[in-house]
């Protein structure tokens, strides 16, 4: 059990007089026992005052055995009422409460701590915990553990420094030491107190590794300008902000505090810090779930469907898209904010994808629901497949973020097979195209096709056609099956793209050739796992 | 003369014409404009051009159009999307190349549109007959990318297929 000893007396004395709350005092005394911070405010105050009253000559250890349970409500009286009642933008307000007359407390008015501005006071109490949990429950997320993250106003760092400086001076005068390293950080102490309460109320543990995050942003407008003196002392720490946001970010303030000389600090900032009139305000309580990933393979049976929405000048040129047809249902089931669709390569609007289909992965951002059984995923797949005949999906499953890498690998390295319907201007006979079947590992030099030059740089790509198989149809038509290296432009191989793809079917057959239809027969990537 | 539905690489291009460039009779050019949003244009010789008439043999093709400027040294490499900024910018009457024939004539090929030069056709340097055999496809002269803001206005100074056919008809009538 941790205890306060004689060397802590001057710290307790100085801070208590300055208007620092008991928990902050414990922090500066380097008290490391989490349990102690959870004791009710009143009790901690009582114990500290008793500690001070006791005879300094006796061996002093303060015992923190108190009877009251940790969750007892503490009431703070606000000297000022009125402005805090206003609730303009959902800011969390603490209702002014009258001190319970039945509770015999020495000081009926509790000052807002001059170091933590109320974070380790009001915002550790059951009322606030309840408000946070209400927000979480109403947001209706599915989660098995949570991370609670807190954003504190930057002036807290300034006030912390001010308190420490004055303590350091006092301790030096008394010939005692004060180590900065053992002082408990405010955020850490706050989490010690609030995590167990949140856990209990939400019914799940806190887990640092988990993706479900509850975040609170605190602000203290009354003292926002306290950081400004740092800008004159260390101007290069404060770069102009990109948005209209304040230039005094937490990072910038901490950096400036590291640089500023003690004398300069003492000149510009009251040490110890002054007592504020108001508590901090909790500006926002937000919930966010980490993204989940759904993978599968899709077939495309329409020759009139783009992969992504085709919108020009705000006008949709073609109805729907592969990604929308697949993602629509996932968005509904997972209740996500948005999605990111990616696939192992793409096909043009007028190209079908047959065979096993093309691997794809969808990132669902901030999903409310994250757990799905294999059965449920099968059901989802069914729903997607019955809703459209233009696309079909298979092997629909949840995957990790790392697994996406395997899909993109496939895009560069693996082979694809195609089937092309080809027209020629001059007549052909069966014999004229038979030789194509014997060509293996045909090397192509493909300049960036004209049709994509507006969005791709000019370059020459060397690509290989591994094998071909022809099927004669009539004097001006034949079907060609090809197995090619990833990244080969098939259409350009057929019509030659103004001679910019060499060799091409036209040059091989000594005719003008054109492609009438193209199908992807297979995408030779063995991911995601077949179900 | 009526253009049948062209198959092959030209299928997605619209044909625009610029006849009698710089007042030189029958030196007509055909600009193929792609149907994409950001229109890529391919500069070619129109069928009426003297170089494409029977009996003409090409002696040389030169992309060095002045002491300081060679269309072959166009800077368009690199992966940056802004790479086109370094490409040579062309106005309508910017010369692309000079072609001389064995009968002593010299012809200048002009850009006909405003935009950035993407590439000139090096295949015709090694094989000039392609220019005459397939002027609208493998024998193209250059590829030009108009400025995004000028995409719609780039063909303003050019004639449609129909308008060009009327010009050809007039020529035929006036020569008879």
TrEMBL record, chain A:
It catalyses: uridine(55) in tRNA = pseudouridine(55) in tRNA; uridine(54) in tRNA = pseudouridine(54) in tRNA. GO terms for biological process: tRNA pseudouridine synthesis. Residues 293-524 form the Pus10-like C-terminal domain. It comes from Amazona guildingii. This is tRNA pseudouridine synthase Pus10. Belongs to the pseudouridine synthase Pus10 family. PANTHER family: TRNA PSEUDOURIDINE SYNTHASE PUS10 (PTHR21568:SF0). One of its GO terms (molecular function) is metal ion binding. It is found in: Cytoplasm; Mitochondrion; Nucleus. It comes from the Eukaryota. Residues 113-287 form the Pus10 N-terminal eukaryotes domain. Its main location: cytoplasm. Its EC number is 5.4.99.25. The keyword Repressor does not apply. Pfam families: Pus10_C, Pus10_N_euk.
From TrEMBL, chain B:
This is Protein Abitram. The keyword Plastid does not apply. Keywords: Cell projection, Nucleus. It is found in: Cell projection, Dendrite; Cell projection, Growth cone; Cell projection, Lamellipodium; Nucleus speckle. GO terms for cellular component: dendrite; filopodium tip; growth cone; lamellipodium; nuclear speck. GO terms for biological process: dendrite morphogenesis; regulation of actin filament polymerization; regulation of filopodium assembly. It comes from Amazona guildingii. Belongs to the ABITRAM family. It comes from the Eukaryota. The lineage of its organism: Eukaryota, Metazoa, Chordata, Craniata, Vertebrata. The keyword Ribosomal protein does not apply. InterPro entries: Abitram (IPR039169), GCV_H/Fam206 (IPR033753), Single_hybrid_motif (IPR011053). It holds the Pfam family GCV_H. One of its GO terms (molecular function) is actin monomer binding.
